[in-house]
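Researcher: Quick test of sequence recovery. C-alpha cells follow.
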C-alpha cells in the first residue's frame, strides 16, 4: 500500500511541495527568531549602557559611590567596582549576581555619614539611596568616562527572584578612588518572552500551514492529473478492446496534458492506418496468391488425369507470375523492416540498358536517350525500379515507349514515358498504393498485381529520392524517378 501510494505522481508532488515549504518555513522561522533575539538583545544592551552611563556621569561629576542614587535592582541591577575588584556600591535588595566584574553584593565599607551621622539616622548628605564605601570625604575629583561600554550576559537575584540580564561595563578613569567600573544590567525577560511567544506560534502554526500546503497541493495535483487519468483509462480500454478507432479525450486547454492527448490521438490514428494497411496488404496478398496457385493446381490436376490436355505453357506462366509475386512481397517486407539500400555506385544509364536488353522486341518501339550518371544504393533494388517502370510503360503503351537518363544539378533523373491512355489526375497518387490497379488494368492476363509502382516508390524514397507521374508529350503517362547523384569518388 505504501509503495503504491508513493508511486503516485500526486503523492510525490504533495510530499515534495510539503518538504520544500517545511524547509523554507524552518529557514524563515530560524531567521526571524535570530533577528528578533538580536534586536531585543541590542535594545537591552542599549538600555544597560544608558543606565551605566547615567551612574558613570554622576561619579565623573564628583558624586561619591556612597551617595549614588542607583536604580531599582529589579529592573536595573548596578555595581560600582574599583580597579582591585572591590565592590564600592550596589543596588538595594541584590542577593546574587553573575556575569559582572564582581560576584559580591555588599560593599566593602559601610556608608559614610556626614560628621558621624545626623539626627535622621544616617542619611548621606546627597540623599542617596545606595550602599557604598568611601573615604573620609564625599567630594571626588572629576573623572573621565570611556567612550564605549563592553557587553555581556549574566543573571541576578533580587528579592528572591532570579532573572537573566544584559550587562554593560563602563569605565570611569581618574577619580579620587582611581579607575572605577560601573556595571548596569537590563532585563532580558522581554526578549525571552518575545522569542518564546514567536517560537510557540511557529510550532503551532507551522504544522497547520504544512497541512494546508499538502492538502492544496494534493487537490490541485489531482485536478491537474485528472485528464491524464482519463487518457490512461481510455488507453487501457483501447488495449483491452483492440479498437484502434477510439480516441482519448482531449482537454480544452493549451497545456502539456492537452498536447499529450493530441499526440496520443495522432499516434492512434497512425497506428490504425498502419494496422488497416497491413490487414489490407495481407488480404490482397492472399487474394493475389490464390489465383495463380489455383490455376496452377487445376492445370496440374488436369495434366495428371489427362496428360494430353496439360497446358505446359500456362503452367509455366502461372509459376513465373507466382514467383514474381512472391519476390515482390519479399522485397516489400524487407523495405518495411527498414533494410538499408547500401552504398554501391550504380550507373543508371548502364542499368537501363541492361533492363532493355533483357526484354525481347515486342509490339512497341523503344526510344532511348541515356546519359551516364552514377547514384549510390542497391543495384538490385534500383534495377527492380527501372524494370517495373519499363514493364508498366510497355503494358499500357499503344506504339512507343521512351526512356531517358540525365542529370539536373544534384539529381539523377530517369524518365519513362508512353503514348497510352495516361493516368487521370485524381489517380496519380493512388496508383502508388499496394495492390491498386486502375479499371483498365485489372485483367490478370495483362500481368501485374499492383505491386510494381508501390515497390518503385518505396525504393526511391529509401534512396533519398522520389517517384512521380505526369502526362507525357505523347499523351500517355510519364514517370519521373529522381535520385541524388553519388558524390565524386
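Model:
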Amino acid at each position: 500500500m505504501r509503495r503504491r501510494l508513493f508511486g503516485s505522481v500526486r503523492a510525490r508532488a504533495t510530499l515534495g511541495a510539503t518538504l520544500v515549504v517545511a524547509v523554507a518555513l524552518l529557514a524563515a522561522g530560524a531567521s526571524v527568531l535570530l533577528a528578533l533575539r538580536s534586536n531585543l538583545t541590542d535594545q537591552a544592551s542599549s538600555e544597560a549602557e544608558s543606565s551605566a552611563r547615567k551612574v558613570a556621569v554622576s561619579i565623573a561629576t564628583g558624586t561619591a559611590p556612597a551617595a549614588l542614587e542607583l536604580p531599582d535592582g529589579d529592573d536595573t541591577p548596578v555595581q560600582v567596582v574599583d580597579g582591585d575588584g572591590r565592590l564600592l556600591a550596589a543596588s538595594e535588595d541584590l542577593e546574587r549576581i553573575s556575569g559582572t566584574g564582581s560576584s559580591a553584593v555588599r560593599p566593602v565599607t559601610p556608608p559614610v555619614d556626614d560628621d558621624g551621622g545626623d539626627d535622621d539616622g544616617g542619611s548621606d548628605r546627597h540623599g542617596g539611596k545606595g550602599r557604598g564605601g568611601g573615604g573620609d570625604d564625599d567630594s571626588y575629583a572629576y573623572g573621565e568616562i570611556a567612550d564605549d561600554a563592553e557587553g555581556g550576559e549574566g543573571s541576578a537575584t533580587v528579592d528572591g527572584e532570579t532573572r537573566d540580564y544584559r550587562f554593560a561595563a563602563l569605565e570611569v578613569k581618574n577619580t579620587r578612588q582611581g579607575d572605577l567600573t560601573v556595571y548596569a544590567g537590563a532585563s532580558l525577560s522581554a526578549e525571552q518572552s518575545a522569542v518564546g511567544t514567536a517560537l510557540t506560534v511557529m510550532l503551532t502554526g507551522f504544522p497547520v500551514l504544512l497541512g494546508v500546503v499538502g492538502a492544496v497541493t494534493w487537490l490541485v495535483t489531482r485536478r491537474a492529473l485528472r485528464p491524464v487519468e482519463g487518457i490512461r483509462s481510455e488507453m487501457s480500454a483501447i488495449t483491452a478492446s483492440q479498437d484502434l478507432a477510439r480516441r482519448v479525450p482531449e482537454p480544452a486547454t493549451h497545456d502539456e496534458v492537452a498536447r499529450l492527448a493530441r499526440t496520443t490521438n495522432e499516434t492512434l490514428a497512425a497506428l490504425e492506418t498502419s494496422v488497416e494497411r497491413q490487414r489490407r496488404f495481407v488480404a490482397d496478398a492472399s487474394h493475389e496468391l490464390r489465383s495463380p496457385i489455383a490455376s496452377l493446381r487445376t492445370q496440374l490436376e488436369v495434366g495428371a488425369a489427362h496428360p494430353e490436355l496439360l497446358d505446359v505453357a500456362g503452367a509455366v506462366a502461372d509459376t513465373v507470375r507466382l514467383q514474381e509475386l512472391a519476390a515482390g512481397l519479399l522485397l516489400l517486407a524487407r523495405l518495411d523492416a527498414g533494410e538499408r539500400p547500401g552504398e554501391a555506385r550504380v550507373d543508371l544509364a548502364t542499368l537501363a540498358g541492361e533492363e532493355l536488353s533483357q526484354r525481347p522486341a515486342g509490339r512497341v518501339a523503344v526510344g532511348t536517350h541515356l546519359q551516364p550518371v552514377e547514384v549510390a544504393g542497391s543495384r538490385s533494388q534500383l534495377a527492380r525500379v527501372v524494370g517495373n517502370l519499363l514493364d508498366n510503360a510497355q503494358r499500357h503503351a499503344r506504339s512507343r515507349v521512351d526512356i531517358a537518363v540525365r542529370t539536373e544539378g544534384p539529381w539523377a533523373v530517369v524518365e519513362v514515358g508512353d503514348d497510352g491512355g495516361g493516368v487521370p489526375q485524381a489517380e496519380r497518387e493512388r496508383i502508388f498504393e499496394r495492390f491498386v490497379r486502375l479499371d483498365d488494368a485489372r485483367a490478370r492476363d495483362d500481368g501485374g498485381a499492383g505491386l510494381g509502382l508501390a515497390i518503385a516508390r518505396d525504393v526511391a524514397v529509401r534512396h533519398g529520392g522520389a517517384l512521380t507521374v505526369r502526362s507525357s508529350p505523347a499523351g500517355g503517362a510519364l514517370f519521373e524517378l529522381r535520385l541524388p547523384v553519388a558524390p565524386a569518388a
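The radius of gyration is 54 Å.
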